[in-house]
Specification:
Layout (H helix, E strand, L loop, with lengths): L10 E10 L2 E11 L4 E5 L6 H8 L7 E6 L2 E3 L3 H4 L3 E4 L11 H11 L4 H14 L15 H13 L5 E5 L7 H16 L3 E6 L2 H6 L2 E6 L2 E6 L1 H6 L4 E6 L3 H8 L5 E7 L2 E6 L5 H10 L5 E4 L4 H9 L11
Parallel strand pairs: 3-8, 3-9, 6-7, 7-8
Antiparallel strand pairs: 1-2, 1-4, 4-5, 9-10, 11-13, 11-14, 12-13
Protein name: ABC drugE1 family efflux system ATPase
Keywords: ATP-binding, Nucleotide-binding
Length: 318
Amino acid sequence: MTGDDNSAPVIRVRGLSKHFGPVVAVDSLDLDVHPREVYGFLGPNGSGKSTTLRMLCGLLHPTSGEIEVLGMRLPKEAEGLKRRLGYMTQNFSLYRDLSVAENLGFLAAVHGLSRERTRQRIEELLDRYWLTELRHQLAGTLSGGQKQRLALAGAVLHEPDLLLLDEPTSAVDPQSRREFWESLFELTDAGTTILVSTHYMDEAERCTRLAILDRGHLVADDSPQRLMEALPGRPLLVECDRPRQAQQVLENQPGVIALAQIGASLRMLVEDEGLEKPLSERLRAAGIEARLVPDTANLEDVFVAATRQPRQTAGEAP
């Protein structure tokens, strides 16, 4: 990893910003990612996740701020970082007209692996990621899940200390996503640190620590469990026969943070528990009999609460 000090951050970022003309994509970001963490970036499109990942692997120069990855300062020492870093992009980026094995062989040559080590690693990865029977198949003809497994095999071929993944499961089915995450935990067990961006709440809950980004700002950073325990709001289930009408009545009511219909019920996030009585009375006045039942907080509640505040910086994209 990063020398003999396992407590030293694998990634240390201070005041990181990136501007594209008048648009502020990342704004004064501070991060510490520690060894063997699965550190998640959660945020909507345009929140700065991909831009941050590209700066962390040296592909994009920051406008301002400090980046240290595996003890190396970026962008100055980006070249020396390449052999210790794996990067998997959101879109499949391997050669579609090469076979599975040929793609891995090409990447091994890029990383300078010996012929014997190349042979060993390709056989190991074909077996580990269920690609053995596909070794001679052209990459462009693989399914979404198969392409994902090949991309991961390519990203870890050279046994990197740090793996950066940019929304790696956005185009695959739920079963492939579950298998992919099992593979990630195998890598952390072997000593790899992982930073992964996602917009799936169930994936975010799997992370050991989670950063929530909103329009370039870091708005939350802790373990998923602690984020849910510290939720600045109270989730309620509205049990009634007319959830759609109840939602229309409760929209824009003071203290109501979010509303979502879940099956035959309405789920609501409110600012505090003192709102239960006035909201019940508001529904009753509209002719809707309902029961408001406290519910358990989930990560979607945290996300909604963390990203609901309007933020508009001079020059920031609306």
